C-alpha cells in the first residue's frame, strides 16, 4: 500500500493523525511546490525483501536544485543528495516506514516545483494474483493452451504496459522542466535586449550632442 503524506520540516516516521492517503498502487508519481526555506518529508511503508525505487526531478525554480534525504525505518540515512536537480535511487527494504525528504532551506527566495515517482517491487500482490489464478487450473487438461501460459503472457503484457506508462511519465516531467527553462531564458533574453536597446539609445543621443557641440560657433560677436 502506498502512503505519501507531507510531514513538514520536523517530520517523524509515524504518520500524523488524520493524514490523507493516496490510492494503493505499485507505481505512483506526485508533483508539488516546495516553498523557499522549507523542507517537506514523505513516508512509505515497505515489506521485507521488497524493492523501493525513487526518481525525482526539479522542474522549476532558480538553480533547479534541492537537497534529498532517504532514511530507513531505523532512522539511518541511506541516501543524501546535496543541491541536485534530479536523481534515481533503488534500495532493498525491510519491514517499516521509509522516509524521504526534499530540503529547500538553503534558498531564501526561490520556490521549487518537484516531481517524484515511486516504483515498488515484490510487495506480495503479484504472488497473490498468481495463487488466485492457480485455483482455476484444475480440470483444464482438455484445453490446448494451459492457463499458466495465458498467465505468463498477461503478466508480460502488464509489465510492458507499466514500463511504457513509467517512461511516458518521465518524458512528461522532462518536457515540463525543459519548457520552464526555455520560458525563463526567453524572459531573460527579452530583458537584456531591452537593456541593450536603452543603452544604445542613450549612447546615440550622447554622440549626437557631442558632434553638434563640435560644430557650434562659440565666438562671441563684438559690438
Automatic annotation (TrEMBL):
<dbReference type="GO" id="GO:0005789">
    <property type="term" value="C:endoplasmic reticulum membrane"/>
</dbReference>
<dbReference type="GO" id="GO:0005794">
    <property type="term" value="C:Golgi apparatus"/>
</dbReference>
<dbReference type="InterPro" id="IPR009038">
    <property type="entry name" value="GOLD_dom"/>
</dbReference>
<feature type="signal peptide">
    <location>
        <begin position="1"/>
        <end position="20"/>
    </location>
</feature>
<dbReference type="GO" id="GO:0033116">
    <property type="term" value="C:endoplasmic reticulum-Golgi intermediate compartment membrane"/>
</dbReference>
<feature type="transmembrane region" description="Helical">
    <location>
        <begin position="191"/>
        <end position="211"/>
    </location>
</feature>
<dbReference type="InterPro" id="IPR015720">
    <property type="entry name" value="Emp24-like"/>
</dbReference>
<dbReference type="InterPro" id="IPR036598">
    <property type="entry name" value="GOLD_dom_sf"/>
</dbReference>
<keyword id="KW-0812">Transmembrane</keyword>
<protein>
    <submittedName>
        <fullName>TMED5 protein</fullName>
    </submittedName>
</protein>
<comment type="similarity">
    <text>Belongs to the EMP24/GP25L family.</text>
</comment>
<keyword id="KW-0472">Membrane</keyword>
<keyword id="KW-0732">Signal</keyword>
<feature type="domain" description="GOLD">
    <location>
        <begin position="39"/>
        <end position="120"/>
    </location>
</feature>
<dbReference type="Pfam" id="PF01105">
    <property type="entry name" value="EMP24_GP25L"/>
</dbReference>
<keyword id="KW-0256">Endoplasmic reticulum</keyword>
<keyword id="KW-1133">Transmembrane helix</keyword>
Amino acid at each position: 500500500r502506498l502512503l505519501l503524506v507531507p510531514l513538514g520540516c520536523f517530520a517523524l516516521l509515524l504518520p500524523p493523525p488524520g493524514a490523507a492517503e493516496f490510492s494503493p498502487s505499485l507505481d505512483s508519481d506526485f508533483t508539488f511546490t516546495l516553498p523557499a526555506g522549507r523542507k517537506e518529508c514523505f513516508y512509505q511503508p515497505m515489506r521485507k525483501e521488497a524493492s523501493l525505487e525513487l526518481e525525482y526531478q526539479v522542474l522549476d525554480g532558480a538553480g533547479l536544485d534541492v537537497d534529498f534525504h532517504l532514511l530507513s525505518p531505523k532512522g539511518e540515512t541511506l541516501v543524501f543528495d546535496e543541491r541536485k536537480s534530479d536523481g534515481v535511487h533503488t534500495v532493498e527494504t525491510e519491514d517499516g516506514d521509509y522516509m524521504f525528504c526534499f530540503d529547500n532551506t538553503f534558498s531564501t527566495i526561490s520556490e521549487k516545483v518537484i516531481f517524484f515517482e515511486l516504483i515498488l517491487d515484490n510487495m506480495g500482490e503479484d504472488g497473490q494474483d498468481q495463487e488466485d489464478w492457480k485455483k482455476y487450473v484444475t480440470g483444464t487438461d482438455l484445453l490446448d493452451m494451459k492457463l499458466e501460459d495465458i498467465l505468463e503472457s498477461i503478466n508480460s503484457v502488464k509489465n510492458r504496459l507499466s514500463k511504457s506508462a513509467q517512461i511516458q511519465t518521465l518524458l512528461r516531467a522532462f518536457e515540463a522542466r525543459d519548457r520552464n527553462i526555455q520560458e525563463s531564458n526567453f524572459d531573460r533574453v527579452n530583458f537584456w535586449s531591452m537593456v541593450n536597446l536603452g543603452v544604445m539609445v542613450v549612447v546615440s543621443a550622447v554622440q549626437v550632442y557631442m558632434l553638434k557641440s563640435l560644430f557650434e560657433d562659440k565666438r562671441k560677436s563684438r559690438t
